[in-house]
Amino acid sequence: MSAGQAVRLSRALLPPLGYVKRDGTKLPGIVYIGGFMSNMTGVKATAMEQLAVERGHAFVRFDYTDLGQSVSDDGKKTYSFEQWRLDVLTVLDELTDGPQILVGSSMGGWLSLLTALERPDRIAGIITISVACGFFPRFASSLSADVSKIFEQRCDLSVRNEIHCFLYYSSVCG
């Protein structure tokens, strides 16, 4: 797909995931991971797409479950940080090939770090834009036990400075 048209990925028991995918000839590809309550039509998402296309890189931007073009037909919305984390993994696993650079804005910065922990072999780099350090403590209780365990193994939770955790992740995943 190269026209930049929004389409929807069907998923069992979940609303379809709305996304835009652009083909490219250069690796790594780029995945844009938006902020809290953002959608894929925002200025940062579309500007990142334009940059990727101009430079020949594959690119994907998407709407999280229950936002934008990823809303169920019944209109019910059950926002969940854990589901949004799974959305990022779905995009990475089903819509991209090869190594990817994750570009996360605000909450998307945290999601990019969590994604890198779960798929380190797929990540060529991480760029965060105004990463929302406060999101992890706020949503930590909603993460699965497996993800919480990975986080605990790689970051000293007794250190309250989220920047320390971010730098540690960068050194582990970079």
From TrEMBL:
PANTHER family: MYCOPHENOLIC ACID ACYL-GLUCURONIDE ESTERASE, MITOCHONDRIAL, PALMITOYL-PROTEIN THIOESTERASE ABHD10, MITOCHONDRIAL. The lineage of its organism: Eukaryota, Metazoa, Ecdysozoa, Nematoda, Chromadorea. Residues 47-150 form the Serine aminopeptidase S33 domain. It comes from the Eukaryota. InterPro entries: AB_hydrolase_fold (IPR029058), ABHD10_acyl-thioesterase (IPR052382), Hydrolase_4 (IPR022742). One of its GO terms (cellular component) is mitochondrion. This is Serine aminopeptidase S33 domain-containing protein. Keywords: Hydrolase. GO terms for molecular function: hydrolase activity, hydrolyzing O-glycosyl compounds; mycophenolic acid acyl-glucuronide esterase activity; palmitoyl-(protein) hydrolase activity.
